[in-house]
Structures are given as structure tokens and as C-alpha cells.
Amino acid sequence: MADLRKRLDANRAGNFYVDSTCINCDACRQLAPASFEEVGEYSAVTHQPATESARRQAYRALLACPTGSIGAEHTNQTILNAAKADFPLPIEGNVYYCGFNSEKSFGANSFFVQHLGGNWLIDSPRYLKSLVDAFDRMGGIAHIFLTHEDDVGDAARYACRFGAERIIHRADVHAMPDAEVIIEGEEARAYGEDFRIVPVPGHTAGSLCLLYRDRFLFTGDHLWWDPEARELASPRQLVWNAAALHRSIEQLTDCSFEWVLAGHGGRVSLPQPDMQAALRDLVERRR
């Protein structure tokens, strides 16, 4: 719960605000970019939402905030309830953003794929009844794909509730030692219908990407979109092995995809040739 006494001075006067417990995870700026911006080391409300649509986006950001750092001086319960019911939030087709980012995962995004062969949860949101009920309505969870050791969140609780198998790389298995499926080595491989697991060591030794239908690439902390620079980006800090990271980025040039759906950082959709060009540009910048 945000504390009005800790309201940041960078906030624009008005109902919504960010307090000093913000960890600058970027979730609010992705969900309501018209209202939230990065100011120094925090996010802040730089434009108070003026329409019902904008207020609904701001309430989504409030709900998704992993540290409860977003508050409203006066709550519109009707819009708040509508925003809560929006999650999982559709991205495209049967791919969703879960919302309710977890502080255990440093505020990382998690995603959900509704699939006839069994639904997938990619990384883990907070374990909340509203999400559990939503996943129940959507057919449950069969697979929980963990991109790396940092973003396992409440995966164990979701696995127990839904009887789902957890998938993680051997090198990061210490974060989920009782996972049901352990990925070995650095070779990409098909996994069931429509999915391909791509090891991308670099940020961590066991980082993984998940490619769905050669269109959606779930990247964890390996790769993301920088909306200000309008280019793909990859980590330069907290990197296990920089040379391995560069090789992993180069490896992705062999994949076809149109979406980058990241744990941290922006998500983006580009035509496949443009995505390949953006990826090759990143490779050249990281040489």
C-alpha cells in the first residue's frame, strides 16, 4: 500500500502518485505510459490521467506494481475493479500479460499462453486468488516455463495448485530444485506442439528463451525493447558471462519472431524483417 507521506516530489499534483518505495521496475511505464515516466531513480506520475480509459490504465499500473508503491488519494472502486478484471491482459491472440508483478522477481513481467495442448505460464506473477480464478476459467496451467533463476516468484505455488510441470535449465535449477523438467546444454529444441526452448546463457548461466509459433519470443532478462532509443537492448550489468551473452544474442538471428516479450524492459511487435534488422543491429552494437 502506497504511503501518501512518502509521495515523491516528482509526481504531478493530482490523485495518482508514486512513493519512495518504488524500485523503478518499469511495470507502470509499460502499462500506462501516458501517465508514468522515469524521473531520476524512480517512476513518477508526470501526467495525471484525464479520461476514464487513462484512469483504468493507471489503476492497472497500481495493481501490477510489485512493491505497492503507486497510490490514489481517492479510489474509484468501479474503475479499480474493472482494471483488476482486465488481468490477464490480452497481448495478441491467445497470449496474455499476467500483471500483478512479484517483488520476489524484482518486478519482472510474466505471461500466459492459452494452448489446446496445455496452457503455459512464463515466469511467475504474485499468487493471488483473482489470477488463480482467471487461470481456472482459461483452462488451468500445464507448464510453467522459468526463463532464469531470478524470476521464479510464486511458481511453486502455482505448480502445486494446478499440477503443472516446471521447466528450468540445469545451470539455474538451484532456484527451483524440485522442478519437474530440467533443460540441459545449449542446443535449442522443440517442446511439444508450437514451442521451442532456446538456451541463451549470459545474464545467468541457465537463461532460457521460449519461442511460440515462430512469432512470440519470451526473453526473460536476456533481451528487451528500449522505447526511448527505439532499439533492442540486452543487459550490461549483472551479467554472468558477457561473451556467452553475445553468442546467445547472435544465436537468436537463426530464429524467426515478431514479438519480444521481456521480463524486464519494454515489449514490442515488429514485422519479422524489421525484428531481424533490430537484432542484427544489437549484435553489431555489442561487438
Describe it for me?
24% of the residues lie in helices and 23% in strands. It has seven helices and 19 strands. The chain has helices spanning 27-31, 52-64, 77-85, 129-137, 155-162, 242-251, 272-285; strands spanning 16-18, 36-39, 42-45, 70-72, 89-92, 95-97, 111-113, 120-122, 143-145, 165-169, 181-183, 189-190, 195-199, 208-212, 216-220, 224-226, 231-233, 259-262, 268-269. The strands form five sheets. Strands 5-6-7-8-9-10-11 form a seven-stranded mixed β-sheet, with helices on one face. It starts with 15 loop residues before the first strand and ends with a helix. The relative contact order is 0.10.
Give, in spatial order, the strands making up the sheet with the most strands.
Answer: 5-6-7-8-9-10-11
Overall pLDDT level: 97
Our measurement of the CA-to-CA distance between the termini, rounded to an integer number of angstroms, reads 44 Å
Radius of gyration: 19 Å
For the biggest sheet, the summary is: 7 strands, mixed
- CATH top level class name of the largest domain: Alpha Beta
DSSP helix count?
Answer: 7
The coarse overall form would be: globular
Kindly state the number of beta strands: 19
Which stretches are poorly predicted, pLDDT < 50 over at least 5 residues?
none
Secondary structural class: alpha+beta
